[in-house]
Design goal:
The complex is a heterotrimer of chains A (304), B (274) and C (478). With 304 residues, chain A is mainly alpha-helical. Helix content of chain A is 73%, strand content 6%. In chain A, strands 1-4 form a two-stranded antiparallel ribbon. A two-stranded antiparallel sheet of chain A has the order 2-3. In chain A, strand 2 and strand 3 form a beta hairpin. The longest helix of chain A has 31 residues. Chain B is α/β, with parallel strands linked by helices and 274 residues long. Chain B has two domains: 181 residues, 3-Layer(aba) Sandwich (Rossmann fold); 83 residues, no CATH class. With 478 residues, chain C is mainly alpha-helical. Chain C is built from 21 helices and four strands. In chain C, strand 1 and strand 2 form a beta hairpin. Chain C is globular and about 75 Å long. Classes of the chains: A mainly alpha (304), B alpha/beta (274), C mainly alpha (478). Chains in contact: A-B, A-C, B-C. Chains A and C meet through helix 2, helix 3, helix 4, strand 1 and helix 9 of A and helix 2, strand 1, strand 2, helix 11 and helix 18 of C.
Chain lengths: 304, 274, 478
């Protein structure tokens, strides 16, 4: 029981990270109907930018951890957002209105570019960071097993909740959100009634990238080690989360993220850690076959 | 043809189609007769295309049954068949409101794809065809002849090797009908064949449909907004409004039906009759 | 057709707009500074204390930003000046000249070819080969010239083992590209896990040959059948999915198979791979210097290059088989149904085509050729491990298909030569070649979204045989 609770906590923390990345997939898919294959790598870039920013702050004498983390959050979000913008501008926008494989190939190319760019710029070796936020709380102790929740886990869940709240407000109550929803319904129609679709799509990528940056920071804090290849697997899992929750649905992405995090954690805990990725991928396949609209997605009626 | 004209070929009973809370077709019963042209009309959103999608298997009706009777007496219950079987076995062909040609293939190729199942058998499911088996080559020649016949009928024989998507709009409509006819249907379902045609093209379409009725095995079921086409060529008219049948009968009778005129709200009597 | 003629020069291009170009370049450089500031400007490295430390690289950052500025300025200037339009016009003006030249060139080349025996006699093999190739190129076009080049390569470069190995590699990718072309180019099904079938073929060959001592010629069809079987098994549940979903599911399948190979130690020896896979023999004659060897049997002096040449012709034959079957299938009802499926699935169903079966055959056919290529790979390397079957391989083959022009056999071949050859060319810049590769993928897509060769030859004709140009296909699909 204690073991189960512990895994539950770990799963929720991991799932929050996946959820934040999944939002980027779901938003882009909702608006222009493409899988932004490079999004996982944007997440990786976010994690690297956070690491570099943190070390740079230490180097110039900002040693107060909360302040440093706050600054890192701002810098990483801004710069990663810029990466998101640039990726869309360079690789996707010229291909809008082209056949459907073109942006996908371009996205795979962009993913390769980002991975190798980071590898060249920062080296192929893993980058370890000592734990910044030590400590935690012991919830239950018994049966020789203590259920613990670390401060990092608390920060992850709280930040995710806060971001989700802000984000839901953004989509439901602002002009930008309205434009985004209009583009989701019908891109051509939206542009006809005066929505600047180029700007809306750009902002979608920017927001998605900023959220991925936050996820990257959390990944960095949680695991304490990153490399240039973390984007691929995390990206596929986050996409799975987006599909599981119902692609196009924001609460769905979060829910899907949590489920994938939990499934992965429990699978590793009770079955075999080697096959945890297989578990996540199998879920993706099963969901797409038996529940293609996901948990919270709208049913799709085939237009004839 | 010596078809027993007047016998029922398509029989829809208590057909209903619901999407969530929306009732698109509500307890609709009607029949189409062999060798005749039956028209389904009604205002926008009356559920006409939904009826078509139920007949051709793209939707599974929520309730009701749809029966097709072949000339040899064989019967098929369409609501139980998957879409491609309806076309292949029950021999119901259709066209689409927003034309669905294979745009990147030539007109001739479009017509050959329509004869896919027969050619597949002739090619020994590819195994014999790949070695250039003479039986397959014969079947392919016959298929090209048939395509040539229909291209002639729709006046496109000089554009056979042009891409379907590059043809003018009216030609695409005719090519889609030719493609449906190449699949040897007993029932040809046309979804607004006259939409977007100019008056000359519309009258050519009338002649084509008349010829199909007279010379082929196919009976015709059509959805149409263009009253000129409906009143001139159809033998029987079914009027839908909000998914329900509000009138049925020969064109002359429908023209004067008060309920029909009311259904076309804001549309004057003359306009219905046009 | 009456195309409205554009005005010769637009007002903006009448005068060089330097200020505008500078502003453009400045903005781009600013963005580039933002992008590069942390990533290039600072380097994290494990310091003497064992902790990560940071090292500033202002020079690199400045260079990168300056390069972006200069590059953007140049592009902006070209776009805003008449240079681009002028070059375009003069190229267009030159086309008829080229055609004249072409007609003129044939007799010249013909007479040059008459020189070939002389060159051969005087042992100028390379020059003679080039002449023959040039003649074929001008007389019959690019595809026969490429074929002739492939056939002649081992003869012309008998002693150049490096080039022969590269040729084998390129041909392997051409074969993979042609196999995937059936799935992606013809049937329009986006498969991101093609490497899974390559892996199935390779492991099938390795395990069958090692455990049961079966020969290559028995293993090859078995591996193909096994791969096709897997294609059907994986395809059956997922082929009803829409394009992008299919892509991601096939990607997942590819990864699942790789992870299973890594972890199923008892069968596959896990990450260590399988080594000592039997090498192919020349119909029973091994390539060694023994009495029963190939060389001894034919009275030749033993030379390890014999095997390389055999492998070269083996993969060439396999690739040509793939090409032949594909071209044949395109003219059969199944091939036309694949293309129809790519164009409009709903219309296919309305014509009575069983779309699931049609997709499955495409999937199985592609998988089978992938399996053939896999078993060739295994016998050529003598060693296989899961590392050879990562997602990047799928992406590479898909890139070859899409960049070459989906559905175009020649385009795929050219793309494979360019990409794998280019890849080799950048070998000395090991670090940068994947980066260049990615950039090339993006830029080619932006430049030519339909790939290098986007024309299409209809499968059947009523009047005359003619190739449909790419722009008309584009227009028709609108």
């Amino acid at each position: 029981m204690e073991y189960f609770l512990q895994q539950l906590i770990n799963g929720i923390a991991l799932g929050s990270i996946y959820g934040l990345v999944a939002i980027g997939y779901t938003m882009v898919y909702g608006i222009i109907g493409m899988i932004n294959f490079a999004h996982g790598d944007v997440f990786m870039v976010g994690a690297f930018l956070a690491l570099i920013a943190f070390l740079a702050l230490l180097a110039i004498g900002v040693t107060a951890i909360p302040l440093a983390l706050f600054l890192v959050l701002i810098v990483a979000m801004l710069l990663t957002a810029l990466y998101g913008w640039a990726v869309e501008r360079l690789a996707y926008r010229p291909l809008r209105g082209s056949h459907r494989l073109a942006p996908l190939i371009s996205a795979i190319g962009m993913s390769i570019v980002l991975q190798n760019y980071v590898q060249i710029a920062q080296g192929a070796r893993v980058k370890p960071l000592p734990p910044l936020i030590p400590g935690g709380y012991t919830l239950i102790e018994g049966g020789g097993f203590a259920v613990q929740v670390s401060n990092v886990q608390i920060i992850i869940v709280v930040t995710t909740l806060a971001l989700m709240t802000v984000f839901s407000w953004l989509v439901s109550a602002t002009r930008l959100g309205r434009n985004m929803r209009a583009c989701e319904q019908d891109l051509k129609m939206a542009s006809l009634i005066g929505v600047d679709i180029d700007r809306t799509i750009s902002l979608t990528f920017v927001i998605g990238a900023a959220l991925a940056a936050v996820a990257g920071i959390m990944y960095l804090l949680y695991y304490g080690v990153i490399d240039f290849f973390i984007g691929f697997i995390a990206g596929v899992k986050a996409f799975t989360a987006a599909v599981l929750g119902g692609i196009g649905s924001l609460p769905g992405a979060m829910l899907g993220g949590l489920l994938i995090g939990l499934i992965e954690t429990f699978w590793s805990a009770y079955f075999s850690a080697e096959y945890k990725d297989v578990a996540a991928f199998s879920i993706l396949v099963l969901v797409l076959i038996f529940m293609p609209t996901g948990i919270l997605g709208r049913p799709e009626v085939e237009k004839v | 043809m010596n078809a027993p004209i007047g016998e029922i070929i398509l029989d829809a009973q208590h057909l209903s189609m619901r999407f969530g809370g929306l009732v698109a077709v509500d307890d609709l019963s009607f029949a189409a007769k062999r060798g005749k042209i039956t028209a389904i009309i009604g205002p926008n959103g009356a559920g006409k295309t939904t009826v078509f999608n139920c007949i051709t298997g793209f939707y599974q009706p929520s309730e009701g049954l749809i029966r097709i009777v072949h000339m040899d007496g064989k019967e098929f219950l369409l609501e139980r068949l998957p879409d491609f079987r309806i076309a292949a076995r029950a021999r119901v062909a259709r066209t689409f409101q927003n034309i669905r040609l294979f745009a990147g293939m030539t007109a001739l190729e479009n017509l050959l794809v329509a004869q896919h199942n027969r050619l597949m058998v002739a090619s020994g499911f590819t195994l014999l065809g790949i070695f250039g088996w003479p039986g397959y080559l014969r079947a392919q020649r016959a298929a090209i002849e048939k395509a040539r016949f229909w291209l002639d009928r729709v006046g496109l024989s000089n554009r056979a090797d042009d891409l379907a998507g590059a043809l003018p709009y009216g030609a695409q409509r005719r090519l889609e009908i030719a493609r449906a006819m190449c699949s040897d249907p007993v029932l040809l379902c046309l979804d607004e064949p006259a939409a977007g045609l100019n008056p000359r093209e519309a009258s050519e379409l009338n002649k084509l449909l008349d010829a199909i009725r007279a010379e082929s095995e196919a009976s015709i079921l059509l959805i149409e907004h263009h009253m000129g086409v409906v009143m001139e060529i159809s033998d029987h008219v079914v009027v839908l409004d909000y998914g329900r049948k509000i009138a049925e009968g020969p064109p002359a009778q429908i023209r004067d039906d008060a309920k029909v005129i009311a259904a076309y709200l804001g549309v004057e009597e003359e306009e219905v009759a046009r | 057709m009456a195309v409205p003629t554009k005005p010769a020069t637009s007002p903006r291009s009448a005068k060089l707009d330097v200020a505008g170009a500078l502003k453009d370049a400045g903005l781009t450089a600013f963005v580039a500074f933002g992008l590069f500031s942390l990533m290039l400007g600072l380097r994290t490295e494990t310091g003497s204390t064992g902790r990560l430390e940071i090292f500033p690289r202002p020079g690199l950052l400045a260079t990168a930003v300056a390069a972006v500025f200069a590059g953007r300025l140049m592009i902006a200037l070209i776009a805003r000046s008449r240079v681009a339009a002028d070059i375009g016009r003069s190229l267009q003006a030159m086309t008829p000249e080229f055609k004249k030249l072409d007609r003129f060139a044939t007799p010249v080349l013909l007479s040059l070819v008459l020189l070939t025996p002389v060159l051969l006699y005087s042992e100028h093999y390379l020059l003679a080969g080039i002449l023959v190739l040039a003649y074929i190129l001008f007389r019959w076009g690019l595809a026969p010239a490429l074929l002739a080049l492939a056939l002649l390569l081992p003869i012309l470069f008998y002693s150049n083992r490096y080039l022969l190995d590269l040729g084998i590699l390129v041909l392997t990718y051409i074969m993979l590209g042609w196999g995937l072309n059936i799935v992606v180019g013809l049937a329009g099904l986006l498969d991101l896990g093609y490497v899974a079938f390559y892996a199935v073929g390779a492991y099938a060959y390795a395990l069958l040959a090692q455990n049961f001592g079966l020969s290559f010629w028995i293993c090859l069809p078995l591996a193909g059948i096994l791969a096709a079987f897997w294609g059907v098994m994986l395809g059956f549940p997922v082929l009803r999915l829409r394009g992008d979903y299919l892509a991601i599911v096939t990607l997942a399948f590819g990864e699942i198979i790789r992870i299973v190979i890594v972890n199923w130690q008892s069968l596959t020896n896990g990450p260590n791979g399988i080594s000592g896979i039997p090498r192919p023999s020349f119909f029973g004659l091994p390539f060694n210097d023994s009495e029963e060897g190939f060389a001894a049997h034919f009275g030749l002096e033993f030379n390890p290059v014999h095997r390389i040449i055999f492998l070269f012709y083996l993969i060439l034959a396999l690739a040509l088989l793939t090409n032949f079957v594909t071209l044949r299938l395109r003219r059969l009802p199944i091939g036309r149904a694949w293309e129809a499926l790519r164009e409009d699935e709903i219309a296919c169903r309305s014509l009575g085509i069983n779309t699931t079966n049609t997709k499955l055959t495409a999937f199985a056919m592609g998988a089978m050729f992938g399996g053939f290529a896999g078993s060739f790979f295994a016998t050529r390397q003598g060693f296989i491990s899961p590392e050879s079957f990562v997602f990047m391989e799928s992406a590479l083959v898909l890139a070859i298909v899409v960049l070459g022009g989906m559905g175009s056999q020649l385009g795929v071949a050219i793309a494979a030569v360019v990409m794998i050859g280019g890849f080799e060319f950048f070998r000395q810049f090991e670090q940068f070649r994947m980066l260049v590769f990615g950039i090339a993928m993006v830029s080619i897509m932006v430049w030519r979204p339909r790939g290098l060769i986007a024309t299409r030859m209809p499968s059947v004709f009523l009047q005359e045989k003619k190739i449909i140009p790419a722009d008309i296909i584009d227009e028709a699909r609108q």
